[in-house]
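Q: What would this chain look like folded?
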Amino acid sequence: MVRGLVNFTGLSTRLLNICVDSLCKFRKLEKAESLIIDGIRLGVDPDVVTYNTLISGYCRFVGIEEAYAVTRRMRDAGIRPDVATYNSLIAGAARRLMLDHVLYLFDEMLEWGIYPDLWSYNTLMCCYFKLGKHEEAFRVLYKDLQLAGLNPGPDTYNVLLDALCKCGYIDNALDLFKEMQSRFKPELMTYNILINGLCKSRRVGTAKWMLTELKKSGYTPNAVTYTTILKLYFKTRRIRRGLQLFLEMKREGYTYDGYAYFAVVSALIKTGRTKEAYEYMQELVRKGRRHDIVSYNTLLNLYFKDGNLDAVDDLLGEIERRGMKADEYTHTIIVNGLLRTGQTRRAEEHFVSMGEMGIGLNLVTCNCLVDGLCKAGHVDRAMRFFESMQVKDEYTYTSVVHNLCKDMRFVCASKLLLSCYSKGIKIPTSARRTVLSGLRMSGCYGEARKAKAEMKLTLTLNPNKHLKEQFVSNLDGSSILEIAALLTIVPLLVLLRYSIGFHCKIDNNGVKAVTSKKNDDEKIVISRNWKAAISLDFIFIVFPMLLFFTVLSEWVYHGTVLLSLLVLILSVTAKRSFSGLQRGQSLSFRASVSSYRVALMLITCLCILAVDFTIFPRRYAKTETYGTSLMDLGVGSFVLANAIVSRQARDVSSGNWITGAKATAPLLLLGFIRLVTTSGVDYQVHVTEYGVHWNFFFTLAAISILTSFVNIPAKYCGILGFAVLAGYQTWLLSGLNTYLLSDERGTDIISKNKEGVYSILGYWAMYLLGVHLGYRLFYGKHTKIRSTTSSIARVFLVSLLLWIVTILFDNYVERISRRTCNMPYVTWVLAQDLQALGIFMLSSYIPLNKLSSLEEAIDQNLLATFLLANLVTGMVNLTVDTIFASPFSSLLILTAYAFALSAIIGTIHFSGFRLKFW
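A: My prediction, written as C-alpha cells:
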C-alpha cells in the first residue's frame, strides 16, 4: 500500500535527492536528515547520491567527523560509498588543512577498492600547497598521477598554476602555461589565474599581454578578469586609472555583483578617502543591492579605519538580527581592526570565542593576532600564541623575526631564523640581514659569526633538491622490447652516418681519392676538416639520438624500421658503386668496439641531464626496484664494455695485485671527489640507486680490485663468473633482496650504502662473464681463422641465447632489477649490449667505412667526455629549474648542451690532448 501511495504521489529517489540538496545548501541539515527518514518510511529509499549530498553538507557547514559518520550509516544501509563520497570528505578535510585525515581517506579508499580520480589528486595537491609542502604537491603531479594511470587535465594544471602564482614562481607558471597550450586549449579560468598572479606580483605589462592572449583565444573577459586588473591598479596606487577602469566596467555591465564596488571601496579606505568610500557604498545600496556578508565585511573594514567602534557594534548587531552568519573573513577583519585600534585584550577574547563557536582558525587571523600583539608591545603573549600555532607559513616566521628584532631580542630571532632554514622555510634576505646586524650592534659578535656560518651551511644552492629527487624516484621503467628497439636506433644512426659519408666521398672526391680503409692505428680524419666533420656527426648521430630519447619517444618502433630500411638501401647502393672491397675483407673488431663504447658514452651523457627535464619520458629513467629502462643499462654496459676489451680477455698478463691497486687509485679519487662535490653543493642524489655515499666510480674500483686479487685465465673466467652469479642469486632469493629493496637503513656504512656494496657481486660476475665472451668471440686463437660474417653471426647467436635466458628468468625466477644487479639483469645487459655490438660490426659491409670524427675524438678522451658531461650537468641543474622548463626550452637547453659537449671534446682531441677512461 505504501508503494502504491508512492507511485500515486510521484515521490521518487530523484525528488528526494533534489530536496535534500536544497536543504543542505541552506544549511538545514537536521531537516535534510528528517526528510530522508520520512522518505524511508514512505518507501522511498535513499541512494548513494542522497548520502553524498548529505556528506558534502556536513563537510561544509558542520565538521569532517560528522560527515564521516554518515559513511558508516551508508554501509549499514547496504550502500557502498563511491569516489564522489570520498572526494567530498577529502575536500572537507583539505579545506580545514587536516592533511593526516586526507591521507587516511586516500588509504581507506584503496582498501575498499575505490580508486582516486583526478579530482581527488587535485584536492590533495591543493592541501599540500596550502600547507607550504610544495615538493609533496609536485610529487603527486609527477609520480602519483602516473602510477595511477591518470593524465593531468585542465583542472590539474589550473591547481598547479594557481599554486605557483601564490608561491611567487610566476616565470615557472608562464612556462607551464606554454606547456599546457601545447596539450589542450586553456580555459577562461586559466587566464584569470595567471592574470591574478601577474597582478599580485605587479607585472602590469605581462598581465596586459595575458589579457590580449585571452581575447585572441576567443574568450571574452568577465567580471573576474576586470576586477583582478582593477585590484592591480589600486594595489599600485593608480587610483585614477582604477576608477577609469571601474567606469568602463559599469558601462559593460560588469558591476552587477558588487565585487568591483568592494574593490573600489577597499582601495579608497587604504588611501584614507573614507568619505568617497561611503558614497560608493551608498550608490551600491541605491542600485538595489542588499547587504550580504561581503558588503558587511567591507563596511566593517571602513568603520575600523575611521575608528568608529560604535558603528562596528551596530553593524555586528544588524548581521545577527538578519540571521546571517559571519565568515572567516569577518572575524579576521574584527581581530585585525581591534588590534589596530589598541583593543588587544578584546581582540584576544574574540579570537578565543571563535574557537568556542567552532569557527575555523585560519592562518591569516592567527598571523594578524601575532603581528598585532608584537606591535602593541606584548611580545611575550605573542610568542606564547606563536608556539601554540599548529600551522605556520613564511609570513608568520618573517613577522615574528622582525618583531623580535624590534624588541632587541636578536639571539632569539637568530635561533628562530636558523630553525626556518633547517626546515626549508623561505625567509626574506632582509630578515637575515636584520638579525646579523642586530647581533653585531648588541655586541654579540661571536653569536653573529656562529649564526652566519650556520646559515651558510643550511642555505642550499639547490632549492628544488627534494623535488628533483622525487621526480626520478619510484619509477617502473618500460618494456624490454621498447628498450631493445631504442638501443637498436643508436648503432643504426652510426651506420647511416657511415653510408652517407661514403656517398659524400663518391660525389665530392671520387673513389680513387680515398684509398685508406678502417684501421685502428691510422689517423683517419684530416685535421683541417674536423670542424665540419664534427658538425655533421652531431647532425646525423647525436641530435637524432636526443630526439628519440625525448620528443620522438613515441615513435621508437617507427624509427627503428625506417632507419633499418635507409641503412639497407644506402649500403646496397654503396657496395654496387664500389668495387675495391675484396670478398672476405675483415673489419677490425677493435674499431667496432670503439664505436660501441662511444655510443654508450653518448647515451650516458645525454641521459644524465635529460632525465631532469619533463620531456625525457619517465619510463626511460632508472627504475626503483624492478623493471627495465634506458638508464638502467648504464653502469652494467660500462662494466661489460670494459671487460670485453680488458687485458684478461686478450689473454695478456695484467701484472700482480699491486699493479691493479695502483690502476684503481684514479677511480677511487674520482669517487671521493664526486661524493664531496655533490654534498658540498647539496646536489640531488637518488639514494636507492647506490646508497647514501656510494657512486659509479666506487663500483668500478671495487670490480678492478677484485679482478686484481682473483687473476685467472680468460678461458676460466666464465666458470667463476657463473658460480659467483648463481651463488649471489641464491642469496637474493633467500631474503637478501627483501633487505636491499627496503627503505630501512642502519647507521653503519654498509647499511647506508647497501645497494652499492652488495651489487658488487653481480657486477663482478658480469665482468668475468664479459671477459670470457670477449676471449671466446674475439680474442682467442681460434677466432683469427673466422670470416667477418662468421664472427658477426656468432655474436648475434650468443645474444639470442642470452635473450631467451633473460626472458625465462624474468618471468619465472625473479624480475630484472638494476638495484640488486640480479641474474636476470646481468643476462639482460649481456644480451642487449652484444646485440648492439653485432649491429656495429655490420659496418664491415659498408665500403670505406671508418670511425667518424666525433667517434674518434670521444674514443680517445672517454674520461674527459664523462667528466665534462657531469660538470655541465651539475651546472645546469644548479642554475635552471629543470622540472619547470617548457618543452621547447628543455629541448633547446639539451641541444645546446649536446653540441657544446661534442665541440669541446672535438677541440680537445684535435688539439693533441688525450684522456682515456680505460
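The chain has a mean pLDDT of 79.
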